[in-house]
Design brief:
The complex is a heterodimer of chains A (99) and B (319). By secondary structure, chain A is mainly α. Chain A has one domain. Chain A contains 3 helices and no strands. Chain B has a domain of 186 residues. Chain B contains 12 helices and no strands. In chain B, helix 2 packs antiparallel against helix 3, helix 8 packs antiparallel against helix 11 and helix 8 packs parallel to helix 12. Chain B is globular. Classes of the chains: A mainly alpha (99), B mainly alpha (319). The interface between A and B is small, with 7 and 8 residues.
Chain lengths: 99, 319
């Protein structure tokens, strides 16, 4: 294994940790807004780290560009949909959880 | 290597069990909204399963149509249903209830079908090439270099022709039953508006790419049409409506362009070549691209129109 392989393995595992944290948050947090907060971490940072890990293994610049484009699209969709769900929940009168 | 194959087996096993579990939950959920969300999750897992079976064409179609657009259609139908039957919930539930004696019959038939399918699968030879050898042998004459596209558009083009007609008939059914479409009349908000503005041009570009790449790699008219339909759904969600003048014959022309192109091509080729949709090998590539372009536009517009629900009102009806 070369140095670059170790680097991409570290990035992929770090991404997986973010996904795990996001999933635990989605299952355990107490209201819709907090769950969205957990979910977007997994989408944005987790997928970003995984994309970085995969780009290092890409065979060509075209593949690397496509991977990066996928990440940017998920960023856009994730942020937009999280906002829409949250504003929809607010409109329906779902209160923010307080201890 | 051993550890990797074991990991692959574990992943496939989890995927298969997960599919069964999500399907069961979707079928038994009393809450319709929850069932729809589970159905969308089922579609995504199914697409993953197709990827594991090394069928990327089917995976693309499943993710785009099975999970994406069907999910959007079901959610739109759910929104309409809950606005119609807000008061008549009890009646609805009663007519949809399955009585226990019916349940025995359903279980017996399902068991019989399962036993038959199991018998067929067990009696299959463990390995068979199927028709893939013949497809590979005739690939040069088909005009494309991707075997799936060759089968769908050339060797069995009439299947695709009939699928186009099925889509059109489905839309006609919705238009006949649904009544006129009504706008939601609420402002979409800046975020949705911005998303639509950024994504729609990109989606159109992706659709064109999928259409073009279908000649030699996974892609093609149905995947491209589904992406185009998704662009239409996004525009409709952002409360964009085409001008009323476009809703008359221009819309209908786009809807029938695909099936009409297929029928005209079939008739012409029947006169020239003596067989329905028998492409001359020299021009096959170009003819298939023309057919797929018309089909992509029709599929995209049909799916978006299905999402809109009712028949859009044109100028003349706007009195």
């Amino acid at each position: 294994m070369m140095l670059i392989d170790y680097l991409s393995a570290v990035l992929l595992i770090a991404g997986a940790v973010f996904f795990l944290a996001g999933t635990v948050g989605l299952l355990r947090f107490s209201d819709v807004y907090m769950r969205l907060h957990a979910l977007t971490k997994a989408d944005n940072v987790g997928l970003g780290l995984m994309t970085a890990g995969l780009v290092m293994q890409a065979e060509s610049w075209a593949v690397a560009g496509k991977l990066l484009l996928i990440w940017l699209l998920v960023l856009l969709a994730g942020a937009g949909v999280a906002h829409l769900i949250a504003s929809g929940a607010l409109k329906r009168g779902i209160r923010v959880w307080k201890r | 290597m051993e550890a990797l194959t074991l990991l692959g087996w574990m992943f496939d096993g989890l995927l298969g069990l997960g599919l069964l579990w999500v399907a069961w939950r979707a079928l038994t959920s009393p809450d319709l909204f929850r069932a729809i969300v589970l159905f969308i999750a089922f579609g995504l897992l199914m697409a993953l399963a197709w990827v594991r079976l090394e069928a990327p064409d089917v995976a693309l179609a499943e993710a785009a149509i099975g999970a994406g657009l069907t999910g959007a259609l079901l959610l739109a139908a759910f929104a309409k249903l809950s606005s119609i039957t807000a008061s008549g919930d009890e009646k609805q539930a009663d007519s949809a209830r399955i009585y226990s004696h019916q349940l025995y019959w359903i279980a017996a038939v399902a068991l019989l079908v399962a036993a038959g399918l199991g018998y067929v699968i067990l009696s299959l030879p463990p390995y068979a090439a199927g028709l893939s050898v013949e497809v590979a042998a005739n690939l040069q004459t088909s005009g494309v270099s991707h075997p799936v596209t060759a089968v769908l558009l050339n060797f069995r083009g009439y299947d695709t022709l009939l699928e186009m007609v099925v889509l059109l008939v489905a839309l006609l059914g919705v238009w006949s039953l649904g009544g006129p479409a009504i706008g939601r009349g609420s402002a979409p908000g800046p975020v949705l508006d911005m998303m639509a503005r950024v994504l729609v041009p990109l989606l159109i570009m992706v659709a064109a790419y999928l259409l073009w790449v279908g000649a030699h790699a996974p892609g093609g008219a149905f995947q491209a049409g589904a992406v185009l339909g998704a662009a239409g759904v996004l525009l409709l969600l952002a409360d964009w409506r085409p001008r009323a003048g476009l809703m008359g014959w221009p819309l209908r022309l786009m809807l029938v362009a695909g099936p009409a192109a297929f029928v005209v091509m079939a008739a012409l080729l029947y006169m020239v070549e003596g067989r329905l949709l028998a492409f001359p090998p020299a021009q096959a590539g170009m003819l298939i691209l023309m057919l797929e372009t018309a089909a992509t536009v029709s599929i995209g517009v049909t799916l978006a129109a299905l999402f809109l629900g009712g028949r859009p009102q044109s100028d003349k009806e706007h009195t």
